[in-house]
């Protein structure tokens, strides 16, 4: 007889939407935004994209931990709504909320990529409106620099919010898949569709190291975080065959330290909290 699959752990939830982006957000950074959304909703009876469940968040003083998830069915007629979801995470029980605690519908606009500004700023990025689809976005820890990477291989780095160009590399990769700044803002990691990852020195705009792949690995995502001893560490989500792995890298030598399988499927979105305590795939 075959093995019976056990119940899913409490940190695993299905919300009925394929996700393309995930990010951890402290409660204090989202409360004011949700309050504004609630007020706008009260002022407009025709707003069908706002979910009243977000109102419950504005009435509590809990300093919770939240995960923002973005995805949907795309521009077609799949019937799957495009939306941004907010789920709560409880440290004590290591569990995600069974249902999203807030939801924002996006109509036909599918959030293929998402980045959360450290200070909660929002801005329409006019310099990116007339270029190809951007597959990667990242802020530095201070929220003063934004890096974006396109499917055409262009890597652009802007100051924020002025959007003056600090770096424009037209052939960073064949196609840029993901970006991540080091916590001190000195380095920017870029991953491409093929070839090794690259480590950029932000001040000089030069590549200072490469992150080589092994065997049939495919780099998917990259995120900086920290270990229990306080030292910085770089994590890359890697796909081997149809399985998802997390590879950790030393941020001084840029050598890989370990590799561990975390899921039996390819990883479609990935993030690590800044304190290194939470990992989301």
TrEMBL record:
MF terms in GO: guanyl-nucleotide exchange factor activity
Alphabetized Pfam families for the sequence: ANAPC4_WD40 (PF12894)
SMART domains assigned to the protein according to its UniProt record, in alphabetical order: WD40 (SM00320)
A Gene Ontology BP annotation from the UniProt entry: endoplasmic reticulum to Golgi vesicle-mediated transport
Chain residue ranges for the region called Disordered: 36-57
Compositionally biased spans, kind Basic and acidic residues: 36-45
Tagged with keyword Transmembrane helix: yes
InterPro entries (UniProt xref): Apc4-like_WD40_dom, Sec12-like, WD40/YVTN_repeat-like_dom_sf, WD40_repeat_dom_sf, WD40_rpt
UniProt keyword list: Endoplasmic reticulum, ER-Golgi transport, Membrane, Protein transport, Repeat, Transmembrane, Transmembrane helix, Transport, WD repeat
Anaphase-promoting complex subunit 4-like WD40 domain sequence ranges: 139-218
Localization: Endoplasmic reticulum membrane
Gene3D superfamilies: YVTN repeat-like/Quinoprotein amine dehydrogenase
Annotated membrane topology: Single-pass membrane protein
GO cellular component terms listed in the entry, alphabetical order: endoplasmic reticulum membrane
WD repeat ranges, renumbered to this chain: 174-210
Principal subcellular localization: endoplasmic reticulum
Name used for this protein in its record: Anaphase-promoting complex subunit 4-like WD40 domain-containing protein
Organism (species): Tripterygium wilfordii
């Amino acid at each position: 007889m075959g093995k019976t699959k056990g119940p899913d752990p409490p940190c695993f939830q299905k919300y009925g939407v394929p996700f393309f982006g995930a990010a951890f957000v402290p409660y204090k950074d989202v409360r004011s935004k949700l309050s504004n959304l609630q007020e706008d909703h009260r002022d407009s009876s025709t707003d069908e994209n706002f979910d009243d469940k977000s109102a419950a968040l504005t009435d509590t003083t809990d300093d919770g931990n939240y995960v923002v998830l973005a995805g949907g069915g795309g521009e077609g007629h799949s019937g799957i709504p495009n939306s941004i979801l907010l789920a709560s995470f409880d440290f004590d029980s290591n569990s995600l909320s069974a249902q999203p605690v807030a939801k924002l519908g996006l109509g036909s606009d599918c959030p293929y990529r998402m980045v959360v500004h450290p200070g909660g700023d929002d801005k329409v990025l006019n310099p990116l409106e007339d270029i190809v689809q951007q597959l990667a976005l990242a802020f530095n820890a201070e929220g003063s620099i934004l890096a974006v990477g396109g499917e055409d291989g262009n890597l652009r780095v802007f100051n924020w919010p002025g959007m003056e160009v600090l770096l424009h590399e037209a052939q960073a990769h064949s196609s840029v898949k993901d970006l991540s700044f080091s916590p001190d803002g000195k380095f920017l990691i870029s991953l491409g569709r093929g070839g090794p990852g690259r480590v950029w020195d932000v001040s000089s705009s030069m590549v200072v190291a490469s992150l080589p792949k092994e065997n049939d690995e495919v780099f998917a995502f990259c995120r900086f975080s920290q270990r229990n001893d306080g030292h910085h560490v770089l994590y890359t989500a890697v796909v081997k065959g149809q399985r998802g792995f997390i590879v950790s890298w030393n941020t001084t030598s840029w050598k890989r330290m370990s590799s561990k399988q975390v899921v039996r499927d390819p990883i479609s979105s990935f993030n690590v909290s800044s304190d290194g305590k939470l990992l989301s795939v």
